Amino acid sequence: xxxxxxxxxxxxxxxxxxxxxxxxxxxxxxxxxxxxxxxxxxxxxxxxxxxxxxxxxxxxxxxxxxxxxxxxxxxxxxxxxxxxxxx
Length: 87
Description:
The chain is mostly helical. The chain has helices at residues 3-8, 12-37, 42-49, 53-61, 68-77. The longest helix is centred in the first third of the chain and has 26 residues, at 12-37. It starts with a helix and ends in a 10-residue tail after the last helix.
């Protein structure tokens, strides 16, 4: 089934859910890219953010949905901050 047919058949609620998940994964990818650009290992980021290394691994691999607090801890440990836009 072509993608545009699939998108035409989903409800507004499903569309909203897809957009939310897309934004979440954009944040996760941005955090991973920042870590790699800084030359940090997952172990080092875990130490800096006071989180278990397994949490960093699971968040970055997408096998665990992180809480906002976890994402903020990761970002702050790398000197970044979050901007929340409420629409």
